[in-house]
Amino acid sequence: MKKFLSVLLAISMVISGVAFATACNGNPPDDDGQTQGSNGTTGNTGNDGTTDNSGTTGSNDEKATSGEITVYTALEDDNVTEYLAEFAKSYPNIKVNIVRDSTGVITSRLIAEQNNPVADLVWGTAASSLLILDEMGMLEPYLPVGVDKILPQFKSDKSTPTWVGNNAWETVFVVNTVELAKLGLSASDIKGYQDLLRPELKGHVVMPNPASSGTGLLTVTALLQLYGRDTEAGWDYLTALHENVMQYTHSGSKPAVMAGSGECTIGLSFGFRSIRVKNEGAPVEIIFPEEGSGWDLEANALMKKDSVNPAAKTFLDWAISDDAMNLYAKSYPIVTNGNVSTYSGFPDMDPVEQLIENDLAWIASNRENILNKWTAAYDGKSEQR
């Protein structure tokens, strides 16, 4: 825990010199957002549908208890549905328009809309992306109610935070034992990243594209850091791994699903989704790489607009509430209020110790260059959008 918390201090650094091209990662997709209603009233409600939160820890700005907000998120679809259902119990009169996509696509879309922002807030999107948006001046400082419960390493270090984290997620391998046996291997042969280079696995590995998937980015940047980010050793590894890759997906969860169905032998994905695939009965084993897992934080932020939607502040208050944290903890053992648990089926695995020493500030400031280099070298095996 001590090592992990010391590393997290890098998240709070003020990043300088972040140059992020708007055109990075391609054009944003058409709006495929889903609309779901939720929200009701709490506190002292005025006649105008706002709530006076004075006397609580956090901002005492007025908060709307009715209205409509647009929320951009990279959370998993089933998580979004579950979380919004809980939100609606407290705030049934706020309509939530969800635009959900992978982290890279959401980040590119927000940057493309910088001069005419559509989203009122960002929810459950990589902190490494929010660091970039913050440096670009796109985030509105806001002190959500209950922010004092969030560990300082999991939120912006500004006096009024520009972003606040919810939980951490990490890289795992999903190994289909049936398909692996056909190659003369067993799950015990796959312990870490070097094992993914075995010649038997040529054409049998699937991993997410880092330009579109947050899981892909945290995996690639973990490898660059593990092998020495000031050397070419990480890129040499990625080139060797590319020989064994069958496909790069645009979703971080898809490799887990593909491994579960036997479409590939090994999928690089993230813990929550991978363990769910196993629990649903797929013939897979979940491998936490022995060198450690890359990781990032799912975090929230208020978008800077000419007129800030007061219902967005209400949502951001709820997003770090005890109720929300309890929901996040059902899927992710590391939540930002410090209540660390374990994954179901892995009682002896310490999820904090599994995480590598990770510099999110370095990832944010080098993201464009990393993605440009990766795309030029490896994008030929990416799935069609």
User: β content, as a range?
Assistant: 15-25%
> Quick one: CATH superfamily of the largest domain?
Periplasmic binding protein-like II
Oligomer: single chain
Query: What's the main sheet like?
Result: 11 strands, mixed
Given the helix and strand composition, which structural class is it? alpha/beta
| Low-pLDDT runs | 5-60
CATH architecture classification name of the largest domain: 3-Layer(aba) Sandwich
CATH C-level category of the largest domain? Alpha Beta
CATH fold assignment of the largest domain:
D-Maltodextrin-Binding Protein, domain 2
Total helical elements:
12
Q: Roughly how many Å apart are the termini?
A: 39 Å
The value of Rg in angstroms is: 20 Å
The helix/strand order is HEEEEEHEHEHEEHEHHEHEHEEHHH
Q: Tell me how many strands there are.
A: 14
Helix content: 25-40%
Globally, the shape reads: globular
Count of folded domains? 2
Mean pLDDT, to the nearest integer, reads 87
